[in-house]
Amino acid sequence: MHMTYPFLIAFLLFAYKMDPDSSFDNFMSPSDQKRTGVEKLSQEEKMELQKWINSYCAENVGNIGGGYPSISEIFGNGTYIRLSDDSLWKIDPHDTPITQSWITPVEIIVENKGTGEYPYQLTNTLTGSAVRAQSVKELPPYLLHPPEIIMPPPSPPTLPPNEAKAKQKKS
Q1: What is the mean pLDDT of the chain?
Q2: Between these two residues, 79 and 114, which has the higher pLDDT value?
Q3: Where are the beta strands (DSSP E) in the chain?
Q4: Residue range 41-55: average pLDDT?
Q5: What number is the average pLDDT over the span 130-155?
Q6: CB-side neighbour CA atoms (13 Å) of 117
Q7: How distant is the alpha carbon of residue 66 from its chain centre?
Q8: Under a CB-based contact definition with an 8 Å cutoff, are residues 125 and 106 in contact?
Q9: Rama region for 150: left / alpha / beta (φ>0; ψ in -120 to 50; rest)
Q10: DSSP strand E in 51-158: where?
Q11: What number of CA atoms fall less than 13 Å from residue 105's CA on the CB side?
Q12: For the chain, how many helices (H) and strands (E)?
């Protein structure tokens, strides 16, 4: 049961952001619906469950944590994280596989461990996972203004071989 609680909260946080009129079919796979029993519910029951989830989260999400700042944004596949207190953190490259799976708005405990290039430890209160980080003032330019993807011009249309020969004979 202990491991289930974080996943239930993650689901509730995700569902809280969901439109109350949208369907479970839009965000739950058929196998997840079967495993959780949602497939047995009528559309009306699913809508009522979604309303309850939204109501529960609106009332209780703020009471789950201990008053720590929460994740506001994750940049560069987990390379940078902005917290709700507007602090910005560069994550140790060895730890970005961990932060890639973090979700918003989970609370983060920030601790100054005082050593190395990444002297802070950020701990996800939902999963308990921790990463090394350094405080930074701003995002690097490549994350602020991603490079423009320039597509090559389209090739001229080609004619099927029979039409191409007929066109050459006419000219």
Answers
A1: 76
A2: 79
A3: 71-75, 80-83, 88-91, 108-112, 120-124, 130-136
A4: 74
A5: 81
A6: 5
A7: 22
A8: yes
A9: beta
A10: 71-75, 80-83, 88-91, 108-112, 120-124, 130-136
A11: 18
A12: 6, 6
Query: Is-contact 74 84, C-beta < 8 A?
Result: no
Q: How far apart are CA 69 and CA 107, in angstroms?
A: 5
Q: Report the amino acid identity of residue 154.
A: P
Query: How are beta strands 80-83 and 88-91 bridged, if at all?
Result: antiparallel
Phi, psi (rounded to 5 degrees) for 81: -135, 130
CB distance 14 to 103 below 8 Å: yes
- Dist. CA 12–CA 27, nearest whole Å: 12
Residue 9 has pLDDT above 80, yes or no: no
- Residue-wise burial string across 61-84, b where 16 or more C-beta atoms lie within 10 A, e elsewhere: eeeebeeebbbeebbbebbbbbbe
Those residues with Cβ within 8 angstroms of residue 10's Cβ, 6 or more apart along the chain or in another chain: 103, 126
**Strand extents, DSSP E, 6-147:** 71-75, 80-83, 88-91, 108-112, 120-124, 130-136
DSSP 8-state assignment for residue 150? P
